[in-house]
Amino acid sequence: MKAAKIIGLGALLAVPGLSGASVCESGSIGVGPYISAAPLMDSSGSTRQRFKGGSLTAKCAFNDGFALSVGSFMAENNSSNSSLHGIDVAVLTGHNLASEGFTSQMGASLIYSWNNPDSGSNLSYPTVALVSGLGYNWKNIGLMFSVDIPVYMERKYLRRVEADYARLHYPLAGRATVSFRF
């Protein structure tokens, strides 16, 4: 329930960008690297757990100030033989989202991740994250660097993270996306 309230707050923050937002003014489909680091050290005190992989993103900018984005990601952690994949849906507000030139975005994202630790179990959990990014749009190509910062995970999943944090993906993530704009 709290996750719905946070997404609702993110949607309210995007309301100023909704004026005239009825048709997708600019769409894009992009791919790029995905990197995520667990914010906790593992039990031996060694470096953070890092997941590296790729992402696929589709975005619809209704105007220069409002966009919706849907994406998926897949990554692996070679040191612990863990893998993860997930989907995310984001409500974005920003500057120059549909036009050519420098662009910036911020918003709220609902992320659902599946993690396959080396134990063979399959863990899944939802997270709400803040999304921010900077980029540049050309006529047919876009480049975006973005960061997902988790702000909410249900308490039962947080306990699981504390108990198994060396192998569980916690979606503090960065992406560099090259997209085809249409």
From TrEMBL:
Q: Which UniProt keywords apply?
A: Signal
Q: Where is the signal peptide?
A: 1-21
Q: Which domain of life is it from?
A: Bacteria
**Statement: the UniProt record of this protein carries the keyword Signal:** yes
State what protein this is by name: Outer membrane protein beta-barrel domain-containing protein
Organism placement in taxonomy = Bacteria, Pseudomonadati, Pseudomonadota, Gammaproteobacteria, Chromatiales
